[in-house]
Amino acid sequence: MSLRRILSAVATLAATAAMVTVGTTTSQAAAPAPACDYPAWHAGQSYVAGDIVRYTDGNLYLAVHDNPGYDPVISHWYWDPYDCDGDTTPPDPSEFVVSQAQFDQMFPSRNSFYTYSGLTTAMSDFPAFANTGSDTVRGQEAAAFLANVHHETGGLRYIVEQNENNYPHYCDQGRSYGCPAGQAAYYGRGPIQLSWNFNYKAAGDALGINLLHDPWQVQNNAAVSWKTALWYWSTQSGPGTMTGHHAMVNGYGFGETIRSINGALECDGGNPGQVQSRVDNYQRFTRILGVPTGGNLYC
């Protein structure tokens, strides 16, 4: 047999081996699925743009900016959700468990600054918010967050803290970065009334926004305002032992969300009237969303 015929036969055999016969149908073998075996994320480990990690929730995240190990669920500025085909998949705002009509029902007298679109835009930075667990858990978390927001802002009527005498109080000059925007610049703003220079710095660092030098963004930009509230809810335990997000998705109850926001002043009998106000909001909002309240409503 000539060399040409030998090579032709080898090629034919190789092509045949690449075919898969199922029943009477012959088809090309499927290409292997893209590898999804990415390393686990570690807090404090430096990442560069392009790195892909598997977070503790089992989902993949792509670093879109260099960062020193920020939590992937904190900021879309540093991380994007990632799938095995290389596509980013931010949550679809249309899937938010609270509709525009329900939001309007919850906040009938809200300031026009607090738009529904501002909230859903901010949610893209926090894909786990109201998007974790069963439909019931998702609804309970949304109701809990918005119930606390209602209490903090008088039903979304107030963008900034109303008692201006408190404004100079929120500057901790003992921090190395001080209060570059001014002694009285870090008063409460936004849906959860972000206050103190160290909170503005931490929120700004996480979100990729210079809030330490320009805290007024929280009262001038609806999306930024909502992002600071979701940042606190998703990442800060405050005077409590867990974040509001953790409390709701892991069954600790609404009372623990109160503790994380203002527990030092309200919980353990500190101000039962304020606690009751928050609980009343939560019960009303869960009825609107058609989900049970769950237990442990009080702190």
UniProtKB/TrEMBL annotation:
- Phylogenetic lineage: Bacteria, Bacillati, Actinomycetota, Actinomycetes, Pseudonocardiales
**Residues forming the catalytic site:** 152
Q: Which GO terms describe its molecular function?
A: carbohydrate binding; chitinase activity
Keywords of the record, alphabetical order, are: Disulfide bond, Plant defense, Signal
Query: Which InterPro entries does the record match to this protein?
Result: CBM5/12 (IPR003610), Glyco_hydro_19 (IPR016283), Glyco_hydro_19_cat (IPR000726), Lysozyme-like_dom_sf (IPR023346)
Q: Which domain of life is it from?
A: Bacteria
Taken from the UniProt record, the cysteine pairs bridged by disulfide bonds within this chain are 171-179, 267-299
Q: Which residues form the Chitin-binding type-3 domain?
A: 38-82
- Which Pfam families does this chain map to? Glyco_hydro_19 (PF00182)
Q: Per the UniProt record, which residue ranges are transmembrane?
A: none
Task: Please state what the protein is called.
Answer: Putative chitinase
- What is an annotated GO biological process for this record, any one? defense response to fungus
* Keyword Disulfide bond in annotation: yes
Gene Ontology cellular component terms for the protein in this record: extracellular region
Tell me which stretches of the chain form a coiled coil.
none
As given in the record, the signal peptide range reads 1-29
